[in-house]
Design brief:
four-stranded antiparallel β-sheet; five-stranded antiparallel β-sheet; minor pseudopilin epsh fold
Length: about 160
């Protein structure tokens, strides 16, 4: 007896050329739109990261001043792109902000010389003016709470 041979093409599942073209079209659209969406988010990420880093450094300044029992200071460099922390008149940290973020005074002006902006006393209380971080049109403000001597991040409206 002879066995019947099955047709290879019969009963197999697959995709049509039209379905494959639709999937490729959707993938190309996502690939084209994706970088634009990411670039819109980058300024927010950069300024939020810089604000959190600066606030953490202010906390470090408070802690170091408290543990050493002496005064701590935060100085903004004249270009506004970096700052230095001092405790007992010794430099403990210098930080570059990067990603086109700058520190401005509370009224939005640039600093002329290396300026003392925030101090921490021997009790760990911060005093000083608010700091404004800017990248492009985006701004964040770090305020010094005069009651508790701590720092807080606040948002400023885009111009």
């Amino acid at each position: 007896m002879r066995q019947k041979s099955k047709n290879i093409c019969q009963g197999q599942a697959g995709y049509t050329l039209t379905e494959l073209l639709v999937v490729l079209l959707l993938l190309s659209l996502v690939t084209a739109i994706g970088p634009v969406a990411v670039q819109r988010l980058l300024p927010n990420v950069a300024i939020n990261s810089a604000a959190q880093t600066l606030q953490a450094d202010l906390q470090t300044l408070r802690t170091r001043a408290l543990t050493s029992g002496s005064q701590g200071e935060l100085h903004i460099e004249s270009d506004g792109r970096s700052y230095t922390l001092f405790v007992e008149e010794k430099k403990i940290k210098r930080r570059l902000l990067g990603n086109a973020v700058r520190v401005l005074s509370a009224n939005g002006q640039e600093y002329e010389d290396e300026s003392l902006v925030v101090m921490a006393d021997a009790g760990g209380r911060l005093t000083g003016a608010a700091l404004v971080l800017q990248r492009g049109e985006r701004r964040k403000q770090i305020q010094i709470n005069p009651v508790f001597g701590t720092s807080e991040i606040g948002s400023l409206h885009d111009r």
